[in-house]
Amino acid sequence: QLQLVESGGGLVQPGGSLRLSCAASGFTLDDYAIGWFRQAPGKEREGVSCISRRVGSTTYADSVKGRFTISRDNAKNTVYLQMNSLKPEDTAVYYCAVEWYGSSCVMLRNSGMDYWGKGTLVTVSS
């Protein structure tokens, strides 16, 4: 059974860090591109980061470059998003998603992603 489960969200002060996890079952993460997306209250869902299949090339939205790092642990079939120097504007529900084939992930486009997790809430507030 296909499943993507996000975890690691929570409340953090500005300037703090969190690490989100995206655990997969039913397929091998390394075979596909995996992206992190987020949706803030009242806003559209936006792409945050993507890691490509096999080679593991990474893409970041300009708003998170230098602060967020995406990585993959093939042994655990899990993708991570390390988030440092968090800002209040990073507050959102964060989702991971898989793209079976295409270029939507690398372009951080929601519409081409094929399967989504249920999300984890990140709140950055003092």
Extract low-pLDDT stretches: none
Mean pLDDT: 96
Terminal CA distance reads 40 Å
Strand content: over 45%
> Biggest β-sheet: count, sense, barrel?
7 strands, mixed
The quaternary organization reads as single chain
Structural class based on helices, strands and sheet pairing: mainly beta
SSE order, one letter for each helix or strand: EEEEEEEEEEE
Rg calc: 13 Å
What's the helical proportion of residues?
Answer: under 10%
Number of strands: 11
* Form type: globular
- Counted by DSSP, the helix tally is 0
Pick out its properties.
0% helix, mainly beta, 11 strands, globular, four-stranded antiparallel β-sheet, 126 residues
